[in-house]
Amino acid sequence: MAAEHCSPRTSGARRRHPFLSFTLMAALLSFVCAGPAVVLAEGGTIVFHVANRCPFPVWPASAPNTGHPVLAGGGFLVPPGKSRRVAAPATWNGRFWARTGCNFTSNGGAAGAGCLTGDCEGRLACNGSVGTPPATLVEVSLHEDPTKGSSYDVSLVDGYNLPVSVVSSKSDEGRCDIAGCAKDVNAACPPELQVVATTGGGGSKAKAEVVACKSACLAFGLDAFCCRGAYATPDACRGSVYSRMFKDACPAYYSYAYDTTAATASGCAAQEYVITFCPNRWGGDQQQLDAGHGAAQI
Ligand SMILES: *[C@@H]1O[C@H](CO)[C@@H](O)[C@H](O)[C@H]1NC(C)=O
Ligand SMILES: *[C@@H]1O[C@H](CO)[C@@H](O)[C@H](O)[C@H]1NC(C)=O
C-alpha cells in the first residue's frame, strides 16, 4: 500500500491526544462548537471532492479546528454515486466525517432523531459543530507552504461508521493516498462496541442493524484503552484486542491513540484531494482517484 511509504510521525500520537479528549468532551457535552464565528470560506485554494460510493445517501460534514472557517456550511447531502466540491483556505485545519441515516425537515432541521451516526444536533448544516461519535474521522492539516505540504490521516480513535479513502490528485503523490478498509468493521464489531439502530424507515423494511462501532475508549472510558493516566505513553499504551479488530479491518487508519502503524499522509502538495466514502463499497485497498472526479458533481 502506497501510504506505508509515509515516514511515521513520532509526534503523531501526541497530536492525537488533544483531539481525543476533545471528542470525548464533545460526546459528554453532546455538542461543542469546534470553531469560533468565522464566515464561510469561498474561493479557497485547496479543493476537496467529497464523493459517495456507498449504496445509500450519506451526509458528509466537516468541522474546523479553532480559528478556522466552516466549510460548505459544515454539512450537506451526497447521494450515492455523486460527489460535492468543497473549497478550503490553503491553511485550513479540521476534520471530515460522514453521517448516515439522516432525516431532516425541508429547512434542514431535525426530523425525529436527526442522523443515526455522526449527528450534529440533528441539523443538515453542522455549522462548526463536531459530530457525535462513533464516526470515522478524516483529520486534515493544510499548509500553504508547499515545501511543508499538507498532512492528513484517518482516525478510528473514537470508533467507526463508514470506510473512507483520501487520495491526492497529483499522480506522483502515492504516499499521500490513504486506503479504505479491507472489511466492514460494522460486520466484525463485537456486541459490546456495537451501535444498533432501526434502519429502513418505519415500514416493513425496518430492521435493527449495526450502524457504527465504538472504540474501546469510547465504549468503556478506561485509561488503558484511551492512553491516559498511567497509559499516556506509546510504550504503555499498545492497543488491545479491540484496537486490533479495527486494525485488521482498516490497516491504514489510527486504531487507537498511539497507533504507530497508521498511514499519515504528509508533505502533500496537491491542490485537490478526493475523500471517498465507501471507496470500494466496503473498502478494499484499491485506490480510487476516479471516485471523485468520475462522479457527477452536485
Ligand atoms: C453558525 O454559527 C455561527 C457562529 O457560532 C453563528 O453566529 C450563526 O448564527 C450560525 N448559523 C446558523 C444558521 O446556525
Ligand atoms: C422522519 O421523521 C419524521 C418525523 O419524526 C417521521 O415521521 C418519519 O417517519 C421519519 N422518516 C424516516 C425515513 O425515518
From TrEMBL:
Keyword annotations from UniProtKB, A to Z: Disulfide bond, Signal
Leader sequence residues: 1-34
PROSITE patterns: THAUMATIN_2 (PS51367)
InterPro entries: Osmotin/thaumatin-like_sf, Thaumatin
CDD domains named in the record: TLP-PA
SUPFAM superfamilies xref list: Osmotin, thaumatin-like protein (SSF49870)
Entry superkingdom: Eukaryota
Pfam families per UniProt: Thaumatin (PF00314)
Positions of disulphide bridges: 54-278, 102-115, 120-126, 181-250, 189-213, 217-226, 227-237
Family label: Belongs to the thaumatin family.
PANTHER family hit by this protein: OS03G0233200 PROTEIN
Protein name: Thaumatin-like protein
